Amino acid sequence: SSPIEQMKGMIVQGDRGGVLAVARRFLSEGGEPLALINDVVLPALEEVGRLYECGDYFLPQLISSAEAAQGVCDLVEQAVLSRGGTLKDRGCILMATVAGDIHDIGKNIVSMVLKSHGYKVIDLGKDVALEKILEEARKGEAQIVGLSALMTTTMSEMERVTRKIKGENLSVKVIIGGAAVSQNYADHIGADGYAPDALSAVRLVEKLLG
Ligand code: B1M
Q: Taking CB atoms and a 6 Å cutoff, what residues make up the pocket around ligand 1?
């Protein structure tokens, strides 16, 4: 099978060493780094999510697959940033996965793609407390706060953060993303925008920063 199919299978199997070896070869032979995200990581994790949902996979398998996927993302980030090399400084984005939620692969991808487009990203990590986000936002360096959440149980935390930021009249825009949320939800909580994927997030940021 093709290296792409091979790598997808390896992530689904949770074979981090295997997938990293094939991905390194793929890149050294001139393969497109972002193809590893779009054609390998995204479909593989979708499959893993399906297997987990229907009870064929349990938490340990979910974790192994996530670690393999994150390894590929790290490799892609190194490749993208070393090729680009241009630090255009187009603006600063504060990124966080909200409190209660430890899913950060999507947030990391969005951060990486923003960086590769010349934005500075201050990444606060995952399971980030409201206070921590506010504290950073008050410093005033970032023009945009980007919030990520993947679970129906944590999306309401986005509302808390957004309302708090808006309540303090901080001159910072709030954008949201993640599997559980939508444009409707963004409108509902008073966020300034929603993006379904990393490239749309770049377009949204470009639009908001005018
Ligand atoms: Co979990 N998990 N997980 N998980 N996990 C989901 C989300 C779930 C849908 C699986 C399922 O049941 N089908 C389900 C949530 C159900 C719900 O909402 N009610 C779930 C669950 C239940 C759980 C646990 C509770 C399981 C348990 O403990 N019993 C637990 C939660 C722990 C916690 O957070 N407190 C848990 C744990 C984990 C792992 C740690 C094992 C691992 C995460 C590892 C990590 O992130 N470092 C994991 C994984 C890997 C998944 C699935 C399989 C894949 C998620 C992922 O990384 N997708 C997921 C199933 C699925 O989504 N099909 C699932 C790939 C990623 C690139 O996509 O994050 O959507 P995504 O990001 C996209 C876009 O959404 C967008 O751009 C990204 C790139 O395209 N985007 C933004 C994201 N953020 C953005 C921000 C923006 C703009 C765009 O602007 C700011």
A: 42, 45-46, 48-49, 52-53, 59, 62-63, 66, 70, 100-107, 109-110, 146-148, 150-153, 175-180, 195, 197-198, 201
